[in-house]
């Protein structure tokens, strides 16, 4: 009997699995889809995560904004994006049972592996649980075809007793996302400058004293600190963003942070400042 010719989809699945895609946790996880695999019309992003210390592949601005919310949440301990719904036979069976056309590769017309936008590990008092969230623009939920594909995904996760839900742009606080976007690259101070731990302490002390006691704009205070302490322009503002990202400076993240305006701190950090700075670097 002649051996059946493998489809292109089967070859792609085997290759992705051999590469470790859709496998692992935390730093070791590899998304099933990478930015370079998908035509995203310039909306895709590659960004190093705070929680996982790896590069995340986000395929839309909506995914990016939700990713920021997950990064900021203290109860989220792992984020796995572009997670595959395998085995393929399972989603094919769900589609057939419900009379729904299964997604196909537009070029080969072979059935394609479906993916979930985010598989999230959530810390709770009793341990950790996993949740799944799919990102869709609200207007896209008016599409019957979109709803059909979501139903396949919903039933897939229901069979695994994992909470699944849809998130639209209306559930993502825009100001919070924008603020996190502003501070996100400065979570690790090593990524934004080569200043030493002792220099960080000097800048932090000077910045904090002035932010607490004065009403000048954050940008002005930071620039003055650079000048007075002998650092190149921009270092002070980078440290300020680092302090916000690490919650050493507590601010209302649901209000827009504008460097050209004074920064309002929710608590005076001077008392605990030096204790916290012991872990910098």
From TrEMBL:
Q: Which CDD domains match?
A: TnsA_endonuclease-like (cd22362)
Taxonomically, which superkingdom?
A: Bacteria
Q: Which organism is it from?
A: Anabaena lutea FACHB-196
* UniProt-listed InterPro entries: Restrct_endonuc-II-like, TnsA_C, TnsA_N, tRNA_endonuc-like_dom_sf, WH-like_DNA-bd_sf
* Name recorded for this polypeptide: TnsA endonuclease N-terminal domain-containing protein
Annotated TnsA endonuclease N-terminal domain ranges read: 74-169
- Residue ranges constituting the TnsA endonuclease C-terminal domain according to the UniProt record: 171-253
**Example GO molecular function:** endonuclease activity
The protein's matches in Gene3D superfamilies, at most eight in alphabetical order, are given as: 3.40.1350.10, Winged helix-like DNA-binding domain superfamily/Winged helix DNA-binding domain (1.10.10.10)
Per UniProt, the keywords (alphabetical) are: Endonuclease, Hydrolase, Nuclease
What the entry lists under Pfam families is as follows: Tn7_Tnp_TnsA_C, Tn7_TnsA-like_N
């Amino acid at each position: 009997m002649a051996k059946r010719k493998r489809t292109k989809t089967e070859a792609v699945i085997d290759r992705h699995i051999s590469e470790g895609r859709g496998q692992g946790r935390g730093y070791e996880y590899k998304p099933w889809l990478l930015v370079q695999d998908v035509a995203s019309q310039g909306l895709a992003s590659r960004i190093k995560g705070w929680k996982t210390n790896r590069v995340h592949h986000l395929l839309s601005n909506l995914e990016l904004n939700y990713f920021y919310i997950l990064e900021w949440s203290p109860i989220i301990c792992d984020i796995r994006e572009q997670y595959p719904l395998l085995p393929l036979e399972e989603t094919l069976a769900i589609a057939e049972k419900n009379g729904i056309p299964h997604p196909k590769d537009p070029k080969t017309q072979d059935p394609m592996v479906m993916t979930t936008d985010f598989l999230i590990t959530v810390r709770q008092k009793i341990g950790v649980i996993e949740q799944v969230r799919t990102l869709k623009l609200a207007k896209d939920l008016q599409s019957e075809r979109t709803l059909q594909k979501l139903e396949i995904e919903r039933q897939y996760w229901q069979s695994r007793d994992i909470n699944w839900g849809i998130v639209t742009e209306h559930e993502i606080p825009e100001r919070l996302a924008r603020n996190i976007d502003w501070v996100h690259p400065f979570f690790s101070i090593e990524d934004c400058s080569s200043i030493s731990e002792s220099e960080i302490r000097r800048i932090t002390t000077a910045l904090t004293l002035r932010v607490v006691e004065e009403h000048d704009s954050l940008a002005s205070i930071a620039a003055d600190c650079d000048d007075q302490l002998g650092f190149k322009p921009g270092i002070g503002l980078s440290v300020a963003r680092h302090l916000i990202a690490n919650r050493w400076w507590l601010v209302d993240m649901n209000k827009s942070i504008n460097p050209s305006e004074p920064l309002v701190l929710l608590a005076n950090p001077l008392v605990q400042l030096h204790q916290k700075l012991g872990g910098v670097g």
